[in-house]
């Protein structure tokens, strides 16, 4: 018995509108394949993820008819776990947090922000660095100086001056006038009004430069020429290793 054309089963090449009618949704997230339900994706109506699957489809499909989301697929499984069972991920917290922000899943964002990893970064470290004048600009300046001095060299160094108080800033300027280096190439951090110490700031500098892909270390900078204050009270040498 032949099946009339109007009752033939649909293949994988389906139109987006027909695909949306199905409670089962196939996804291609950055090359990772997932199958879930429409109700799971729309669990939080105010989220960007729910919006993608509300009304007319707002996503392109791949060659197999799966909805395509151009995001890291590895971490989408944690997003799905949360949507399915309210399970807050305990792995890859920083990366999952970025995806939760992208998909705008507010309850997951709030719960992740309560985790030690995100709380420490957002509340403690970032708020401290926000009190260090021109911190981000100085990080970029360090990198520019290091790159400029890297010609035909395996390593290049940048001298950093770190002062925590206004009094130290004045003393540092005194020391800087006697320092045996080009004053324009010295990057100054501080002063700041917060509990973290100079060693805490140095760790932050190393952490943030390494996050940009550079291999870096630091040590106190001891000037060859003597002057009134010990140079390692203020000055540190950051060493960039290129190969």
From TrEMBL:
InterPro entries reported in the protein's UniProt record: BTB/POZ_dom, KCTD7/14_C, SKP1/BTB/POZ_sf, T1-type_BTB
Any Gene Ontology biological process: protein homooligomerization
Gene3D superfamilies: Potassium Channel Kv1.1, Chain A
Domain BTB residue range list: 23-120
Superkingdom assignment: Eukaryota
Listed name of the protein: KCD14 protein
Protein source organism: Aegithalos caudatus (Long-tailed tit)
């Amino acid at each position: 018995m032949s099946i009339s054309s109007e009752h033939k089963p649909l293949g994988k090449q389906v139109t987006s509108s027909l695909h949306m009618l199905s409670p089962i949704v196939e996804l291609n997230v950055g090359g990772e394949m997932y199958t879930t339900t429409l109700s799971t994706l729309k669990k939080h109506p105010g989220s960007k993820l729910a919006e993608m699957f509300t009304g007319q489809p707002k996503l392109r499909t791949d060659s197999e008819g799966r909805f395509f989301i151009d995001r890291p697929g590895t971490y989408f499984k944690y997003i799905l776990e949360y949507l399915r069972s309210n399970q807050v991920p305990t792995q890859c917290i920083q990366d999952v947090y970025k995806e939760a922000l992208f998909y705008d899943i507010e309850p997951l964002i709030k719960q992740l922000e309560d985790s030690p990893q995100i709380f420490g970064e957002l509340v403690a470290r970032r708020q401290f660095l926000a009190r260090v004048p021109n911190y981000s600009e100085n990080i970029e300046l360090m990198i520019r100086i290091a790159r400029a001095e890297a010609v035909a060299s395996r390593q290049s160094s940048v001298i950093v001056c770190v002062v925590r108080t206004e009094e130290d800033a004045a003393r540092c300027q005194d020391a800087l006038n006697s320092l045996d280096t080009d004053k324009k190439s010295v990057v100054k951090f501080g002063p700041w009004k917060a509990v973290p110490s100079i060693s805490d700031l140095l760790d932050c500098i190393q952490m943030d430069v390494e996050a940009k892909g550079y291999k870096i270390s630091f040590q106190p900078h001891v000037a060859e020429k003597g002057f009134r204050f010990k140079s390692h009270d203020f000055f540190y040498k950051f060493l960039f290793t290129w190969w």
